[in-house]
TrEMBL record:
It holds the Pfam family Acetyltransf_3. One of its GO terms (molecular function) is acyltransferase activity, transferring groups other than amino-acyl groups. SUPFAM superfamilies: Acyl-CoA N-acyltransferases (Nat), FMN-binding split barrel. Residues 227-388 form the N-acetyltransferase domain. It comes from Micromonospora echinospora. It comes from the Bacteria. This is Nitroimidazol reductase NimA, pyridoxamine 5'-phosphate oxidase superfamily.
Amino acid sequence: MYTPTARTTPHRSRERMSYDRAAAHAVLDEAYHCTLGFVVDGEPRLLPTLHVRVGDTLYLHGSTGSRPLLAARGPDGLPVCVGVTLLDGLVYARSQFHHSANYRSVVAHGVARLVTDAGERSTMLTALMEKVGAGRSAESRPPSRKELAETAVLALPLREVSVRSRTGGVRDDPADLALPYWAGVVPLRLTPGLAEPDAGVTAPVPAYLRPSRSPWLDPAPMRGAHVVLEALDVSHADELFDATDDPEVWQHLTVPRPTDATGVRELVSDALSAHHRGERVPWVQRCAVTGAVVGTTSYYEIDPDRGAVAIGHTFLGRPWWRTAVNTEAKLLLLTRAFEELGARRVVWHTDSRNARSQRAVERLGATREGVLRMHRQRPDGSWRDTVQYSMVVDEWPEAQRRLWERLRAGAAVA
């Protein structure tokens, strides 16, 4: 616990105040930025800046030419006040007076010192990189000597610290409870969006920038003797275009044939956006022998509660049609669905005109369930009837045995 002081003791709403060390550290660690308050030439200043906590010290990042860093060079350091707030929700009351917010905030007072020790500066900068992404410090260039000379670090010992928070719902006056106005809480959360690679980036999005989700939504890598499935990324677009630049590949798909790699990049971006929304799990398919990108496939219509998933959004270069690459990819996807995720039902959808695809799904051991009329729209604007197939968990052992037999015999299935 932190010891209350005159500066950290409130005059009102004392029930919201806390001096719990763990609670303060949790807020500081969750927040990415803070507001640094200080006085220069008798005038107050507020500066938003990045921060990171290492033990019981709060480090603040800045430029060597900024006002607080220049002021902190003196032997007495710089008296500062640091504030951090996490907004958790908006509270709508029946009366305007009782509208409020749910929040967690930390205020720290003290004297900040300029960090001059090279080892301490390096520790702080590494900790800051790891805060934005575990593993980032090893996957980015360290600062040069010139960059280090332009970077300043303030250190504030965490001793005079308070935590203030509000949780819960509406606190209307009893006389207002019968008013005909909506009241309640709208939760707010800081959530990362879909990572957007810079122009020219070919490295895939790192794991620490992919959201942690249910295993059903995890594009876990899968490897066989003939094919490797790995998480689809925009960096695969050029190779994917080269592998599938054939009108027959796109004949029965519900998206138009891309005319260049930019078009494929847009399709990949759409797939990644659907994955971010929890609607699809996309993989790229590579030849396990050459490493070449040969196609893509996905899970979609993902329903963990019912134990159901569909396999589709698949397009594969013609040289790999009816080869062990395609067969093994389906085997890997089915094995993950039934044996790792605990699926009870796997579904396929094919265009009613696509007899080749229907025969391929039937060779997997799936059962034709029926036709979904005017189910999806084709690129030319016409509406297609979709043939639906499924395989249930009771049918999987026999289907798996037959697929393995065909692979060992070198026979194509799908």
